[in-house]
From TrEMBL:
<dbReference type="InterPro" id="IPR018189">
    <property type="entry name" value="Phosphoglucose_isomerase_CS"/>
</dbReference>
<dbReference type="Pfam" id="PF00342">
    <property type="entry name" value="PGI"/>
</dbReference>
<dbReference type="InterPro" id="IPR023096">
    <property type="entry name" value="G6P_Isomerase_C"/>
</dbReference>
<comment type="function">
    <text>Catalyzes the reversible isomerization of glucose-6-phosphate to fructose-6-phosphate.</text>
</comment>
<comment type="similarity">
    <text>Belongs to the GPI family.</text>
</comment>
<dbReference type="InterPro" id="IPR001672">
    <property type="entry name" value="G6P_Isomerase"/>
</dbReference>
<dbReference type="InterPro" id="IPR035476">
    <property type="entry name" value="SIS_PGI_1"/>
</dbReference>
<dbReference type="InterPro" id="IPR035482">
    <property type="entry name" value="SIS_PGI_2"/>
</dbReference>
<keyword id="KW-0324">Glycolysis</keyword>
<keyword id="KW-0963">Cytoplasm</keyword>
<keyword id="KW-0413">Isomerase</keyword>
<dbReference type="GO" id="GO:0004347">
    <property type="term" value="F:glucose-6-phosphate isomerase activity"/>
</dbReference>
<protein>
    <recommendedName>
        <fullName>Glucose-6-phosphate isomerase</fullName>
        <ecNumber>5.3.1.9</ecNumber>
    </recommendedName>
</protein>
<feature type="active site">
    <location>
        <position position="388"/>
    </location>
</feature>
<feature type="active site" description="Proton donor">
    <location>
        <position position="357"/>
    </location>
</feature>
<comment type="pathway">
    <text>Carbohydrate biosynthesis; gluconeogenesis.</text>
</comment>
<comment type="pathway">
    <text>Carbohydrate degradation; glycolysis; D-glyceraldehyde 3-phosphate and glycerone phosphate from D-glucose: step 2/4.</text>
</comment>
Length: 553
């Protein structure tokens, strides 16, 4: 494992940034606008169909340069090249992380263990295309020769969130022949409610699991299989109705999936980066392969932008370094993602896994505990709804919450003046967060409205909005497969850049494993198969007893 030149917080660039923070602390963003008429134009960058306005940040040119210097000193360029070239960037699992190869055109090679993987990626895309056309053209039908009408995708985590986000976001591109449903949770309600309205004759099941060892997915798939067998009464029909996507082909076959129905994944694709692989089949089946390929093209365009643009005009680098700036120098504990587009309503959930599973780490690549904060809590929701809920805390709460507003310039549903109103809401929120309202302004407003001096004075502190809350605005012409692909890839690279600065492995997730291990010890006790000793602690034992008394056979 390569040595860092020095511990992060001892780097000269880190100290410069700490000083710049002190200098900027008394200067509100609105003063930066007042002093620089060109600010909005200068802090606007575009790439791969996306435009980022990052002018509403606690940022001066000196800070921006210092952030870019820090990125350079942390070896971003070399690590970025290693990411694209198949270097072992996931060091704890001794693997590359080549989601970028999944969207690379034929002709450019990427080698893993000496073998060019791009032809295999494209062979799998061609198999996906063949399946999609066989199903939509009615060549691959259900066991009673009826055409498929529904697809149930069974998977969790990265085998669920990315496909769900994209299927919903690209609703205007649905061809309408197939309705996609997602089952993720082990909570029986998820699958029971999904199966309730489905016809087994016309339902296709996709078992989506990189490892083919995930309990939620396997249990739900077994249940779906049993439901299908009960209704169809035909074991051979399973082969027509059940497909799998996995890197563990043998296990899928052992489970009962026909070998010809297993689509490959590879250990060099992380679960949370897998929507670009055959895990994207729910997407391809819903919008067609042409649009799925356009999604890949959009992501590839962002890959090229990330790889080729200098740091100072590089969207993922700028967004990542701003996040480092607030996280490590301004003590921001969370980051809000606020899509102003109904179609993007699942974006925060997908980015939560992407960012928090990736950068929720506490030791450096060399295994030393960090002495700085790593990944912040990522959260958010669709605008304008959030304005009537949690925006209040952003405006007047005690915490600093940097936000990304994401909004298309054009709507797929241009009804009346709705899109202009939505856009106005988005701009007004960014503006209110930045400008705020002073106590004097609040008091003046109240006096002008006819309030007496004493009451106005008493009320004004409650109406003061401190402002100086940073935000980015990210726009694209419209939500299309290409712009959506670029948007998701942008956040993937933003996550990666942060991990480079924090010197952590953003491609493993060991913390998730502990819960799984303990769960395996508890389950036999809940089922009454194991009664001796303790499950680990008396509080857990007590709850096990409560559960057992409520669920006696
Ligand atoms: O929850 C942890 C995790 O390992 C994720 O990283 C992954 O996306 C998810 O489980 C599902 O894993 P699999 O695709 O192997 O079933």
């Amino acid at each position: 494992m390569p040595d860092k030149p020095a511990q992060l917080t001892h780097l000269p660039e880190w100290r410069v940034l700490a000083q710049l923070k002190e200098q900027l602390a008394g200067t509100p963003i609105r003063d930066l606008f007042r002093d620089d008429p060109q600010r909005a134009q200068r802090y606007l960058v575009s790439g791969a169909g996306l435009t980022l306005d990052f002018s509403r940040n606690r940022l001066t040119d000196a800070t921006f340069d210092a952030l870019m210097d820090l990125a350079q000193t942390c070896g971003l360029e070399a690590q970025r090249n290693a990411l694209f070239d198949g270097g072992i960037v996931n060091r704890t699992e001794n693997r590359p992380a080549l989601h970028t190869a999944l969207r690379q055109p034929l002709g450019q090679g990427v080698r893993v263990h000496g073998e060019n993987i791009i032809p295999e990626v494209h062979a799998t895309l061609d198999r996906m295309a063949e399946l999609v056309s066989a199903i939509t053209e009615g060549r691959h039908t259900g066991y009673t020769n009826k055409r498929f009408t529904d697809v149930v995708s069974i998977g969790i985590g990265g085998s669920f969130l990315g496909p769900k986000l994209v299927v919903e976001a690209l609703r205007p591109f649905w061809h309408g022949q197939l309705q996609c449903h997602f089952v993720a949770n082990i909570d029986g309600t998820d699958i029971a409610e999904t199966l309730r309205s489905l016809n087994p004759e016309t339902t296709l099941f996709l078992v989506q699991s990189k490892s083919f060892r995930t309990q939620e997915t396997l249990d739900n798939s077994l249940l779906a299989r049993q439901w299908f067998l009960d209704k169809s009464g035909s074991e051979p029909a399973v082969a027509r109705h059940f497909l799998a996507v996995t890197a563990n082909v043998d296990e899928a076959i052992r489970f009962g999936i026909d070998r010809n129905n297993v689509f490959p994944m590879w250990d060099w694709v992380g679960g949370r980066y897998s929507l670009w692989s055959a895990i994207g089949l729910p997407i391809a089946l819903t919008i067609g392969m042409e649009h799925f390929r356009a999604l890949l093209e959009g992501a590839h365009a962002m890959d090229c932008h990330f790889r080729e643009q200098p740091a100072a005009s590089n969207l993922p680098v700028i967004m990542a370094m701003l996040s480092v700036w607030y996280n490590n120098f301004w003590d921001a504990q969370s980051h809000a993602v606020l899509p102003y587009d109904e179609y993007l309503k699942h974006l925060p959930e997908h980015l939560q896994q992407l960012d928090m599973e990736s950068n929720g780490k506490r030791v450096t690549q060399n295994g030393n505990a960090v002495d700085y904060q790593t990944g912040p809590i990522l959260w958010g929701g669709v605008g304008a709804n959030g304005q009537h809920a949690y925006h209040q805390l952003i405006h007047q709460g005690t915490r600093l919450i940097p936000a990304d507003f994401i909004i298309p310039l054009q709507s797929h549903n241009p009804v009346e003046h709705h899109h202009a109103t939505l856009f106005a809401n988005c701009l007004s929120q960014a503006s209110a967060m930045m400008a705020g309202k002073t106590q004097a302004e609040a008091e003046q407003e109240l006096l002008q409205a006819g309030m007496d001096q004493d009451t106005a004075q008493a009320l004004a502190p409650h109406k003061e909005i401190p402002g100086n809350k940073p935000s980015n605005i990210l726009v694209m012409d419209k939500i299309t497969p290409t712009t959506l692909g670029a948007l998701i890839a942008l956040y993937e690279h933003r996550t990666f850049v942060q991990s480079v600065i924090w010197d952590i492995d953003c491609f493993d997730q060991w913390g998730v494993e502990l819960g799984k291990q303990i769960g395996n010890q508890i389950l036999p006790r809940l089922l009454g198969n194991e009664t001796e000793g303790t499950a680990g602690d008396s509080a857990t034992d007590q709850m096990i007893q409560l559960f057992r008394s409520a669920n006696r056979p």
